[in-house]
């Protein structure tokens, strides 16, 4: 089968690109291994809500139409939202088609799937940043009597045995999962490495509203000092609770969660925690205050100052005098370990030499090194908001424009062979 | 040289341009980033020994310090020893202090903060029943290390705290001490 552009993945990124391609009259197909919004449907836990407010889902030609713009959608509401997007634009989605290979062919690309193959001039990679959980190598040393799982398989506390739980990782997933599991009566120990702390509400406004209006989310990748660092910033300790409560290490400590340092290793059945807990908490507090300083400066400069509450700062993260450095996993106090240690994309099907030594796609603002290939949906791809539902649209606009001009340039120098092949 | 808000060039004596250049170059040539640090040690007598540092490996070749550095270590008289040198655990504290302080200077230079003075006092608790073997539940090493920095610099209190926090984040000795490291001891 032939088309001009193959888009891999029918989540919000693939659909945003499809919207733009249709607008540019570029013939394309969106290949999806499951159904539209597959990851949202099959790889998220039951109570998860978006951590961005409902209004902050501005996709090309689409947006939140409900009656709770400041609320936070549940997973099923999010899935319906994205499915609605695909329907409204009649996106050319090929569901239940798994891409098995993308390779170069005849000055274009060949995309093999388990439902047939496609030839195209261009390819857009929109499979997301979170296909596979990242788990440390020493996870193999966990005693076999302890159950382990990652956020991709976690659904709710009831699937876990009664007993203590060690949650490893204190970013968005870890902190929410720790809170929920601890409240279910299973004592949680939370291993904390580097993290990003933010309040849900500041000066009466949602933190995501501040980050939007002040331009923080629109910061461009070519305007930051250290893009490698910026692209590796852990997900914010933020949750979309209906009561808008802030979740952070202090709120967890208050309900009885035990904080320990980053899980540094497992030796002879003993979990070893880093002695750096105090410093990672200090780093997170300082970083939060820098964000709040930026917000305060912007508020003063823009005149919004008079409409919002007064400036203030939050309590520093409380760390006990001597956090434990060791936990004997063989003693039975821990029945489950949740590895909230991050995710990475899976490009095992991408048979083009565009991956760096860590297995990530090499690109310049979404322009992949291979001609006519584009990447969407990665953290800080083009802007700080690139991996957010609200951010992918601008990137899709930019990259589809580039794709269109790439096609125009190709057609000016097109070889007869491509035309004779028809389709 | 970079300029602080006071208008005078900030100079903490750290060549950060060279460090950033090295970071850039080594990202592309990770083999050159593989360093090997070395020390040799000879027993003198009793609990006294002398460690020497002279050569190391890095940037793809053997390197040599400008001169040979020596460290005598011993135990104090309260340990029924001769006290001819600092104890090895005190040398570890000096190592931590040196690493963190160098980091503070480098980060301050990169952030265009002029340092005027930086001093640290370190203290580490130890229950010596551990090393004496008097109680198997007592560890040999420190039960904690406390470092207190006094810094006079051309910056706000928060910015100074941030310097110290960043220094820990990128410190080799801090990492060696706070995280597990494999130690293999062979006899030839």
List the helices and strands and how they pair.
The complex is a heterodimer of chains A (423) and B (188).
Chain A: E1 5-8, H1 12-23, E2 28-31, H2 38-42, H3 75-88, E3 93-94, E4 99-105, E5 108-113, E6 116-120, E7 122-125, E8 132-133, E9 147-149, E10 164-168, H4 172-183, E11 188-192, E12 201-202, E13 205-206, H5 207-213, H6 227-231, H7 249-254, E14 258-261, E15 263-267, E16 270-273, H8 277-302, E17 326-328, E18 334-339, E19 343-344, E20 363-364, E21 367-368, E22 373-375, H9 392-412, H10 416-420
Parallel strand pairs in A: 1-2, 1-7, 2-3, 7-22, 9-18, 10-11, 10-18, 11-14
Antiparallel strand pairs in A: 4-5, 5-6, 8-19, 12-13, 15-16, 16-17, 20-21
Chain B: E1 2-3, E2 9-10, H1 16-28, E3 40-45, E4 48-58, E5 61-73, H2 88-110, E6 115-125, E7 144-153, H3 157-169, H4 172-178
Antiparallel strand pairs in B: 1-2, 3-4, 4-5, 6-7
Helix pairs in contact in B: 2-3, 2-4
Features:
A: FAD/NAD(P)-binding domain; 2 domains; 5-stranded parallel sheet; 10 helices; globular; disordered C terminus; B: 188 residues; alpha+beta; GMP Synthetase, Chain A, domain 3; 3-stranded antiparallel sheet; two-stranded antiparallel ribbon
Describe this structure in words.
The complex is a heterodimer of chains A (423) and B (188). Chain A has 423 residues and is an alpha/beta fold. Chain A has two domains: 5-131 and 345-420, FAD/NAD(P)-binding domain, CATH 3.50.50; 134-339, FAD/NAD(P)-binding domain (3-Layer(bba) Sandwich). Chain A is 27% helix and 19% strand. Chain A has a five-stranded parallel β-sheet, covered by helices on one side. Chain A has a five-stranded parallel β-sheet with strand order 9-18-10-11-14. In chain A, helix 1 packs across helix 9 (392-412). Chain B folds into two domains: 1-32 and 87-188, K homology (KH) domain (GMP Synthetase, Chain A, domain 3, 2-Layer Sandwich), CATH 3.30.300.20; 34-86, no CATH class. Helices cover 30% and strands 29% of the residues of chain B. Chain B has a three-stranded antiparallel β-sheet with strand order 3-4-5, with no helix packed on it. In chain B, strands 1-2 form a two-stranded antiparallel sheet. In chain B, strands 6-7 form a two-stranded antiparallel ribbon. The termini of chain B are far apart.
């Amino acid at each position: 089968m032939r088309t001009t552009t193959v888009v891999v993945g029918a989540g919000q990124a693939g659909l945003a690109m499809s919207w733009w391609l249709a607008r540019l009259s570029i013939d394309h197909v969106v290949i999806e291994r499951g159904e539209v919004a597959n990851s949202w449907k099959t790889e998220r836990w039951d109570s998860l809500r978006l951590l961005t407010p409902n209004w902050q889902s501005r996709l090309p030609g689409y947006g939140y139409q409900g009656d709770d713009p400041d609320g936070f959608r549940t997973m099923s509401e999010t899935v319906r939202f994205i499915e609605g997007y695909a329907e409204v634009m009649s996106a050319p989605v090929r569901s239940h088609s798994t891409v098995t290979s993308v390779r170069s062919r005849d000055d274009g690309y060949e995309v093999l799937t388990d439902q047939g193959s496609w030839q195209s001039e261009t390819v857009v990679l929109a499979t997301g940043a979170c296909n596979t959980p990242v788990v440390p190598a020493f996870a193999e040393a966990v005693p076999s009597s302890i159950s382990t799982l990652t956020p991709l398989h976690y659904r709710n506390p009831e699937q876990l045995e009664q007993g203590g739980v060690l949650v490893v990782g204190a970013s968005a997933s870890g902190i929410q999962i720790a809170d929920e599991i601890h409240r279910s009566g299973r004592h949680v120990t939370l291993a904390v490495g580097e993290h990003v702390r933010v309040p849900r509400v500041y000066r009466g406004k949602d933190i995501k509203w501040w980050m939007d209006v002040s331009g923080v989310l629109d910061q461009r990748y070519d305007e930051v000092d250290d893009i490698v660092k910026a692209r590796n910033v852990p997900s914010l300790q933020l949750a979309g609770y209906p009561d808008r409560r802030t979740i952070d290490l202090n709120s967890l400590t208050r309900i009885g969660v035990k904080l320990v340092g980053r899980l540094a290793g497992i030796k002879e059945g003993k979990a070893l925690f880093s002695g750096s807990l105090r410093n990672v908490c200090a780093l997170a507090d300082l970083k939060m205050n820098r964000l709040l300083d930026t917000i305060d400066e912007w508020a003063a400069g823009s005149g919004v100052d008079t409409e919002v509450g007064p400036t203030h700062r939050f309590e520093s993260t409380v760390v006990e005098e001597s956090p434990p450095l060791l936990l004997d996993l063989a003693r039975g106090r821990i029945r489950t370990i949740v590895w909230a240690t991050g995710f990475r994309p899976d490009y095992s099907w991408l048979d083009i030499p565009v991956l760096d030594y860590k297995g990530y796609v090499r690109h310049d603002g979404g322009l992949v090194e291979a001609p006519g290939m584009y990447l969407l949906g990665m953290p800080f791809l083009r802007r700080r908001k690139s991996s957010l539902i609200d951010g992918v649209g601008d990137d899709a606009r930019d990259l589809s424009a580039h794709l269109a001009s790439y096609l125009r340039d190709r057609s000016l120098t097109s070889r007869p062979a491509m035309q004779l092949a028809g389709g | 040289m970079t300029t602080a808000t006071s208008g005078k060039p900030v100079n903490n004596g750290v060549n950060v341009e060279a460090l950033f250049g090295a970071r850039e170059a080594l990202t592309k040539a990770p083999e050159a980033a593989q360093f090997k640090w070395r020390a040799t040690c000879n027993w003198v007598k009793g609990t006294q020994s002398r460690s020497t540092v002279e050569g190391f490996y890095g940037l793809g070749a053997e390197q040599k310090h400008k001169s040979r550095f020596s460290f005598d270590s011993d135990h104090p008289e309260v340990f029924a020893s001769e006290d001819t040198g600092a104890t090895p655990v005190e040398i570890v504290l000096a190592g931590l202090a040196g690493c963190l302080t160098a980091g503070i200077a480098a980060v301050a230079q990169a952030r265009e903060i002029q340092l005027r003075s930086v001093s640290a006092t370190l203290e580490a608790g130890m229950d010596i029943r551990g090393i004496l073997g008097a109680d198997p539940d007592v560890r040999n090493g420190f039960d904690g290390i406390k470092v207190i920095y006094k810094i006079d610099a051309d910056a706000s209190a928060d910015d100074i705290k941030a310097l110290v926090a960043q220094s820990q984040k990128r410190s080799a000795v801090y990492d060696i001490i706070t995280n597990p490291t494999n130690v293999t001891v062979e006899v030839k």
